[in-house]
Amino acid sequence: MNTYFLQVFNGISVSSIFMLAALGLAVTFGLMKIINMAHGEFIMIGAYAAYIIQNIFSRYLPASIFDLYFFVAIPASFFLAGIFGWVLEKLIIRHLYGRALDSILATWGVSLVLQQLARSIFGAPNVDVKSPSWLNGALLVLPGLQLPYKRLFIMLLVIACMTAIYFLMYRSNYGRKIRAVMQNRAMAASLGINTRKIDACTFAFGSGLAGIAGCALTLLGSIGPTLGTNYIVDTFMVVVLGGVGSLWGTIAGGFLIGTGNTTLEFLTNATLGKVLVFTLVILFLQWRPKGLFTINSRSLDE
Amino acid sequence: MKIKFLPKMKKSVIFALTALFVSSAFLSGCGSSQASDSSGSAGDSKDTIKVGVLHSLSGTMAISEVSVKDAEMMAIDEINAKGGVLGKKIEVVTEDGASDPAVFAEKAKKLLQQDKVATVFGCWTSASRKAVLPVFESNNGLLWYPVQYEGMESSPNIFYTGAAPNQQIVPAVDWLVKNKGKKFFLIGSDYVFPRTANKIIKAELKSEGGQVVGEEYTPMGHTDYSTIINKIKEEKPDVVFNTLNGDSNVAFFKQLKDAGITSKDLITCSVSIAEEEVRGIGADNMTGQLVSWNYYQTTDTPENKTFVANYKSRYGQDRVTDDPIEAAYDAVYLWAAAVEKAGSTDVDKVKEAAKGIEFKAPEGNVKIEGENQHLWKTVRIGEVQPDGMIKEVWSTPEPVRPDPYLKTYDWAKDLAD
Lengths: 302, 417
Known about the structure:
The complex is a heterodimer of chains A (302) and B (417). Chain A has helices at residues 2-31, 39-60, 69-91, 100-122, 149-170, 173-183, 185-190, 195-217, 229-242, 247-267, 270-287, and strands at residues 138-142, 145-148. In chain A, helix 2 (39-60) packs across helix 8 (195-217), helix 6 (173-183) crosses helix 8 (195-217) and helix 9 (229-242) crosses helix 10. Chain A is 71% helix and 3% strand. Chain B is globular and about 65 Å long. At the A-B interface, helix 1, helix 4, helix 5, helix 6 and helix 9 of A face helix 1, helix 2, strand 7, helix 7 and helix 8 of B.
């Protein structure tokens, strides 16, 4: 019985990880329609930011406050990845709006550059980020049924990020501007919105979210130059399945793929489980090419 | 919100992705090469002997192969400092295999045909070795391969300085059955090495009265092991035999610990995790777990003390040495000894001379077995310590004869084909 409970928990946990990794992409790909192949590398930047903060704490600060490094690491990951995103937007992306194919190639090139940059700075081998001790261990629900704190923490972090995005996008002046620019750029510009600035900030925000994901993923996985490539396919799948441009879609997509992955993996094996998930997603997209949540638009060119 | 281009762009996306993969092959094809500019002179020229070093310096495998390349460069520089081989300095042509077997094959061809190197030290994955094998055989080149592998191979143009299965996996399983229990759970990455290794393990367990209660493979780069750990919990094995490779090991051990399983509850034995990998996983995540190799940084020989000290002073005090690093270092010395004995860099003469050559390696004495061009090696089972070093808990009294096809084991009769 415990096995099944634990499997349900695993499903939700993997879903939350997918959602977290895909959140940034939901902004850059979903809202801005940029196919950013370097999304995984922003996750990697976030992970290395956590590594840097950890090293600063262990080297220069008293051991008693080491466990608090994670609270510094999360915003640091956000800002470092955000800065990289902002620079990338200013240098490359802004020349490529509406040119999807070029942006695939350019951002893929950027991803290679960033990987090699990480390799030059930190070396090729994986590095170790120690989890804060308050995240070690597990919540004992029933004898034999333990829920690791790290996975619970990631779930909370996803909820916090989702809430923050919701308020930013739908309850703030800035969010209204973003949505206006993405819906009708010309109209928004003629009403006095600085669309260049909105573009750069939005892309930086999406990249920063990827950084937070990277910071959280140090709890569960490897930290190396190619860390991002392990997540890129799944994150795109989550956003496409959920429906491009919809926050709810990303939640639903992450949940379906996460639980689907773990359930099918449990019933068959890891490789076959993945194949089945891919197949189901492809079949689903044949039926509903725009994903789970479509956004109705009155514009004529749709 | 508009989804303007999505429906229209399907075809063009496919085109772009194709372009992307083609360009990736192309880019990595012209990847960094620090080749010297000499114009196709023979490997054995007037005052230098040219050798090739072919490893992944970029891509996923760079994680492991860069250190191996470092060890080879160190050995070459040491030999040069002592006057070189046959009175000539060794000159290195480095090529980047870019973690892509196709690139490995292309670079191998370039090294043999264009640079005309006397020998090549290189490769890590079995996929890259299998890709360059026909190149070395058709050009009559010479490759020194430094990593433990799944066996069932013995090319006349390759010297294998890492362990054959009977020098790593087979003795480890035997020891585990006798000391830890008979119920095995097998977990590995989904490619040739883990699948072949597990075939061998299953045959061996059958003959020793062991039992396989689970066998799982995960795709390369798999990041979530919660489901597999759940399956392991359900089956309650005595031993988890781990042939995962690369990043997956980090995820597996971190998540195993989170699930409340330590080496006290369940012993794992890994054959792809050495000191270098332990650092990335975090020693506290796998303290007490077992590994099987021929060499550890802590191996107690005078040669090893010098080797470790030199490696650290050359590449940094925080660097560690491990089995493939040591095997790659040995390869250079063994080749040099064979060339000295043959009095020539001619491949056929060197191969003939190499038979039976011995070397006092950091791991202890090694000897080239003429019959299959593998090394006699001592087998060591080790336990991961909290400081990330590995402590030997058992070893064979003397070097074990290499047997890549497991011909001397009755239970392995049906495996070779």
